[in-house]
């Protein structure tokens, strides 16, 4: 199971949990599982999210491999100027 | 794409200060900017703008204007398409107002006529009946429950229940037990801060030339940071298939994030479609100020606890950003960046995005970060003053480093903050003596950077020269940097490579030139494209020599036998291989397409000395030094230019620049005479110290450098001024009247 850290304002949508666990081997599966297990997260996922994998930030990389050992942190979709 | 194993190799081109390829064109006036293109039969477009901050559009009567001789088309919002996605619908309704005008200067209608005078006359004949509504331009006022509502029903599920409808989203980040952390502190300081909205201040106003025929095929020439983004937006807003609209980016006279969206291009296309003629639309400077995106203005509360020996025990920030008349997504980046420089056991940032009756916010270098870090770094500086601590040593003591759980969630891996602080500590600037009325300020800064969608095509020309085709407008010297990386990889002189920025129909999709991404991502794709071309050339040479591909290697711009078993063959240079391309399989090219990740976060440290005039409240910048990790400085001149440019924009933001609104909600300083950006005589030489801590996500170790440099100046200057004046300045800009008042109240 991959342990996913959520930012603070998402926690109220998942009964106050800081971490949720999902069965996933890549980012696409992780998002699908998050939507399925926690439908309240769907609007934010639809608007866009990035994720940090062991400290490296990814934006749209669905097929990035993820394992149980990775630190996975959900982040708002990254923008710049 | 990871760092090359031999990343410490002796680079032959990377790191050199080669001639910039666009220099002569720009200084001789040959470069073609947005307003420089013309077309046969071209019409002139002009836009009618709202004189009200907030009003319902009761009716628009264009009949008299249409009857004017020389008027060929008039468009309003109803002439645009109906995109389903709110993101595009908001851009449409910002380009031409729908039902309500939401800010002073909001576009209402547009005219295309045979000349400028006729177009201006036609605007005066358009009769718009308004029902004026109450307005709000201040972020704190807009959050109040009884504030005028800018748009109804725009809040997402994160907006707190019971708050004003102007609050569209809410974010929270952090970890640890705040109460326990503050209980451990020997000193706690809590302050409130405000920053004004500032404009990116690009010298070139928005301009475009659009041609859209009845066959649905369009051509658009415009100044933009991303021609593909313009195509996407215009396709949605005008109802055109992307393949039928070719967008070509002109040379660009500055962007800084402000040209990452559209304000006039869909309008010009709609006018062209209606008139059947090409239409040129060029904004005036006043229009740029009133109707294009400045950055957010902010209101922030910061509370930090510290032990007497300088360890931060807990930190909290509450950030309120107004992004104009449409929902924005900026506060979350300020909230994530606010405490990124610190290793904290207990930290919390809360952020609210808020609508007001102001122009729709656009990105501005490291969007959201400078104002958050201004507030945080001001409180850290004040704690150091109160506790008698050295501000640099205190930051080193609390600095984030590899293994630190960041304030925004992930654990940092390799980052360069400590090295950057150590470089500042060792620099003579930090210990130089100060005189009367002088003060020294310090601030750390942080930005994320990203990679994004990128396509590159690299062509080996028959004469042995090389053409690189990429799709990102060059706003910071990328053509030089990309040519340098191609030359480095191919082993040929820089002068043999020319990089061009192409149109949307000639290369696959590219993200906008933003996020400090181009040297990183386009460079990465160029290296991969060059390696593909090298592989192709080695294979051809293997065939010529009658040996296996694996027996040929590429060294110093030539294919050569890879060891004694490959036989004895004289090396074949790139030019020699290109000369026989016809006979060995045809044209030689390499290309690469990627959505690049691994950009690597970036830290900077700024040192600033100021002198305040107790008689006038004027601030003079005496000395300014920037320390920043570039990963690998491909072209040091351009890296230094980014560091200096961001600093100068930050100096303007800190000392003078601000959008000033009257009680009527109208912008009062829509021009460079009244909106004062720094000029050369305001500035000392900006010293730069480039650190090179390789980014593990790029073959040469490159990190983006374009945005981080605007993050620290606000706090560095405010800290210097506060120390020089003997009073803590918490509102930007620290303009002379404001500082004079603060000093007189101090006594």
Task: List descriptors.
heterodimer; A: 81 residues; alpha+beta; Ubiquitin-like (UB roll); five-stranded mixed beta sheet; 3 helices; 5 strands; 26% strand; B: 747 residues; Aldehyde Oxidoreductase, domain 3; Aldehyde Oxidoreductase, domain 4; 3 domains; seven-stranded mixed beta sheet; 21 helices; 26 strands; globular
Strand order of the largest sheet of chain B: 3-5-1-12-9-10-11
CATH-level-2 architecture of the largest domain in chain B: 2-Layer Sandwich
Radius of gyration of chain B: 27 Å
Number of strands of chain A: 5
The percent range for helix content of chain A is 25-40%
Number of individual domains of chain B? 3
What is the CATH first-level class name of chain A?
Alpha Beta
Poorly predicted regions of chain B: none
Report the major sheet of chain A: 5 strands, mixed
Structural class of chain A: alpha+beta
Oligomer: heterodimer
Number of strands of chain B: 26
Domain Aldehyde oxidase/xanthine dehydrogenase a/b hammerhead (chain B): 28-134
Protein name (chain B): 4-hydroxybenzoyl-CoA reductase subunit alpha
Keywords (chain B): Molybdenum, Oxidoreductase
Enzyme class (chain B): oxidoreductase
Can you tell me about this structure?
Chain B: InterPro entries: Ald_Oxase/Xan_DH_a/b, Ald_Oxase/Xan_DH_a/b_sf, Ald_Oxase/xanthine_DH-like, AldOxase/xan_DH_MoCoBD1, AldOxase/xan_DH_MoCoBD2, AldOxase/xan_DH_Mopterin-bd_sf. The complex is a heterodimer of chains A (about 80) and B (about 750). Chain A is an alpha+beta fold and about 80 residues long. Chain A has a single domain (about 1-75), classed as Beta-grasp domain (Ubiquitin-like (UB roll), Roll). Helix content of chain A is about 25%, strand content about 25%. Chain A has helices at about 10, 25-35, 40-45; strands at about 1-5, 20, 50-55, 55-60, 70-75. In chain A, strands 2-1-5-3-4 form a five-stranded mixed β-sheet. In chain A, strand 3 (about 50-55) and strand 4 form a beta hairpin. Chain A is globular, with a radius of gyration of 12 Å. Chain B has about 750 residues and is an alpha+beta fold. Chain B has three domains: about 35-135 and about 205-250 and about 260-290, Aldehyde Oxidoreductase, domain 3; about 295-450 and about 600-745, Aldehyde oxidase/xanthine dehydrogenase, molybdopterin binding domain (Aldehyde Oxidoreductase, domain 4); about 450-595, Aldehyde oxidase/xanthine dehydrogenase, molybdopterin binding domain (Aldehyde Oxidoreductase, domain 4), CATH 3.30.365.10. In chain B, strand 9 and strand 10 (about 220) form a beta hairpin. In chain B, helix 10 (about 330-335) runs parallel beside helix 11, helix 12 packs antiparallel against helix 13 (about 415-425) and helix 19 (about 635-655) packs across helix 20 (about 715-725). The longest helix of chain B is centred in the last third of the chain and has 28 residues, at about 520-545. The radius of gyration of chain B is 27 Å and the shape is globular. Chain B starts with about 20 loop residues before the first helix and ends with a helix. Classes of the chains: A alpha+beta (about 80), B alpha+beta (about 750). At the A-B interface, helix 1, helix 3, strand 4 and strand 5 of A face strand 7 and helix 10 of B.
């Amino acid at each position: 199971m991959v342990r996913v850290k959520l930012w603070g304002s998402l926690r109220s949508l998942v009964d106050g949990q800081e971490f949720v666990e999902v069965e996933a081997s890549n980012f696409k599966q992780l998002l699908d599982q998050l939507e399925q297990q926690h439908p309240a997260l769907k609007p934010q996922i639809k608007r866009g999210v990035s994720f940090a994998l062991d400290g490296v930030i990814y934006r749209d990389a669905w097929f990035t491999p993820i394992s149980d050992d990775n630190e996975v942190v959900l982040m708002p979709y990254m923008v710049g100027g | 794409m990871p760092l090359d194993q031999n990343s410490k190799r002796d680079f032959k081109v990377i790191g050199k200060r080669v001639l910039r390829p666009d220099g002569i064109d720009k200084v001789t006036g040959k470069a073609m900017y947005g307003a420089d293109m013309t077309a046969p039969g071209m019409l002139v477009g002009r836009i009618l703008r709202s004189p009200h901050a907030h009003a319902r559009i009761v009716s628009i009567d264009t009949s008299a204007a249409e009857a004017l001789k020389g008027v060929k088309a008039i468009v309003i919002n109803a002439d645009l398409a109906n995109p389903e996605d709110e993101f595009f619908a908001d851009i449409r309704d910002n380009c031409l107002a729908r039902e309500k005008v939401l800010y002073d200067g909001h576009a209402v209608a547009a005219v295309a006529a045979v000349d400028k005078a006729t177009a201006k006359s036609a605007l005066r004949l358009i009769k718009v009946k308004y029902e004026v509504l109450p307005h709000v331009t201040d972020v704190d006022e807009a959050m109040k429950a009884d504030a005028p509502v800018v748009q109804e029903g725009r809040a997402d599920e994160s907006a707190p229940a019971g708050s004003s409808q102007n609050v569209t989203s809410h974010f929270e980040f952090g970890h640890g037990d705040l109460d326990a952390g503050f209980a451990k502190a020997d000193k706690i300081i809590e302050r409130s801060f405000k920053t004004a909205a500032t404009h990116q201040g690009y010298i070139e106003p928005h301009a475009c030339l659009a041609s859209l025929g009845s066959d649905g095929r369009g051509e658009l020439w415009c100044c933009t940071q991303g021609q593909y983004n313009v195509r996407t937006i215009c396709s949605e807003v005008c109802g055109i298939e992307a393949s039928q609209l070719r967008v070509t980016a002109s040379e660009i006279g500055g962007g800084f994030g402000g040209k990452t969206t559209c304000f006039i291009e869909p309008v010009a296309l709609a006018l062209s479609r209606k008139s059947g003629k090409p239409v040129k639309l060029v904004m005036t400077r006043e229009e740029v100020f009133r109707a294009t995106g400045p950055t957010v203005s902010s209101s922030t509360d910061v509370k930090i606890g510290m032990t007497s020996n300088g360890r931060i025990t807990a930190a909290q920030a509450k950030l309120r950003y107004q992004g104009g008349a449409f929902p924005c997504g900026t506060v979350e980046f300020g909230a994530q960046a606010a405490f990124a420089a610190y290793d904290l056991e207990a930290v919390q940032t809360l952020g609210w995005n808020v609508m007001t009756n102001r122009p729709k916010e656009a990105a501005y270098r490291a969007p959201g970060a400078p104002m958050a870090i201004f507030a945080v770094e001001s409180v850290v500086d004040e704690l150091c003053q109160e506790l008698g601590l050295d501000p640099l040593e205190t930051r080193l003591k609390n600095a984030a480093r590899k293994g630190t759980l960041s304030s925004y969630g992930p654990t940092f891996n390799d980052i360069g903050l400590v090295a950057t602080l150590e470089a500042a500590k060792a620099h003579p600037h930090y210990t130089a003596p100060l005189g009367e009325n002088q003060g020294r300020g310090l601030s750390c800064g942080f930005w994320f950077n990203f990679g994004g969608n990128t396509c590159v095509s690299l062509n080996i020309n028959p004469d042995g020269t090389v053409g690189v085709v990429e799709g990102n407008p060059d706003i910071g010297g990328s053509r030089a940097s990309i040519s340098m990386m191609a030359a480095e990889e191919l082993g040929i002189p820089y002068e043999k490579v020319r990089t061009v920025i192409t149109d949307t129909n000639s290369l696959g999709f590219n993200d906008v030139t933003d996020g400090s991404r181009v040297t990183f991502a386009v460079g990465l794709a160029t290296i991969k494209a060059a390696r593909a071309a090298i592989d192709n050339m080695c294979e051809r040479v293997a065939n010529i020599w009658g040996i296996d591909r694996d027996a040929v290697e590429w060294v110093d711009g030539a294919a050569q036998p890879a060891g004694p078993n490959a036989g004895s063959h004289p090396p074949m240079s790139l030019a020699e291989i290109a000369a026989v391309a016809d006979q060995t399989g045809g044209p030689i090219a390499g290309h690469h397409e990627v959505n690049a990740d691994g950009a690597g976060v970036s830290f900077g440290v700024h040192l600033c000395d100021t002198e305040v005039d107790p008689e006038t409240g004027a601030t003079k910048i005496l000395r300014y030094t920037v320390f920043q990790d570039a990963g690998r400085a491909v072209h040091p001149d351009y890296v230094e230019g980014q560091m200096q440019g961001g600093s100068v924009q930050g100096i303007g933001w800190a000392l003078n620049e601000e959008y000033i609104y009257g009680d009527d909600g109208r912008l009062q300083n829509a021009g460079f005479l009244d909106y004062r950006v720094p000029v050369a005589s305001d500035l000392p030489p900006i010293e730069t110290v480039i650190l090179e801590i390789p980014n593990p996500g790029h073959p040469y170790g490159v990190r983006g450098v374009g945005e981080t440099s605007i993050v620290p100046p606000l706090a560095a200057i405010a800290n210097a001024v506060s120390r020089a004046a003997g009073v803590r300045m918490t509102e930007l800009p620290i303009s002379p009247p404001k500082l004079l008042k603060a000093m007189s109240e101090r006594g």
